Amino acid sequence: MRARSGRRPGDSGTREQILESALHLFAERGYARTTIRAIAEDAQVDPALVHHFFDNKEGVFDAAVNSPLSVASIFDQLPPSMVGDDTSEASWLARTYLEFWESEETRYGMTAIYRAGLADSATSETLRARVEESTKKWAATSGYKDRPDAETRAILASSHLIGLALMRYVLRVHPLAEMDFEEFLAWVVPSLEMRLSTDLEPRRTRAKD
């Protein structure tokens, strides 16, 4: 069992402790093999408290997806153009998102959310809805908000970052996994910039003769 932070059942940190335990177990065992009883045991609380705070396991996952550890949380932040920063949005997105994965403190939560989110249709729907909601919010405030394809660009950017993160931090694919973080960013930012700023002519279906 992992070391505890000294919180007592019933105090203000109990909910966070339960969520932390759930995320660790989702990451280690997967969503399907994690039970409410196991979460309670890891958090050192009565299972009734898990039900009190989250109702059921799906409720725990829903809380995780809406927590700061979620992949979608980056898109809740204001992009550089909204705060007078001249950093390119591609650079800002890449660094802000990938630093979540670079930190061991938050990586387990990201891994857990992805593993659980892909486990079955219910969790996949929860994760999909959260990503879409947050990405649309970001598209509406980004430097590309006036473009008719702003949401498409935001979704393409997020899918690009998600794929790269899984390759580097979860699957540990060579050579991405061995790269220095700054070197990794140097490769990522230009490709992300292309998805955000390149003007593309829509492909039209060729009319039949």
UniProtKB/TrEMBL annotation:
Keyword terms of this UniProt record: DNA-binding
Protein name stated in the entry: TetR family transcriptional regulator
GO molecular function: DNA-binding transcription factor activity; transcription cis-regulatory region binding
HTH tetR-type domain segment(s): 12-72
SUPFAM superfamilies: Homeodomain-like, Tetracyclin repressor-like, C-terminal domain
TM annotation in the entry: none
InterPro entries, alphabetized: Homeodomain-like_sf, HTH-type_TetR-like_transc_reg, HTH_TetR, Tet_transcr_reg_TetR-rel_C_sf, TetR_C_16
Pfam families in the cross-refs: TetR_C_16, TetR_N
DNA-binding stretch(es), residue numbering of this chain: 35-54
Source species, domain of life: Bacteria
Classification via PANTHER family: HTH-TYPE TRANSCRIPTIONAL REGULATOR RUTR (PTHR30055), TRANSCRIPTIONAL REGULATORY PROTEIN (PTHR30055:SF235)
Tagged with keyword Cytoplasm: no
Keyword DNA-binding: yes
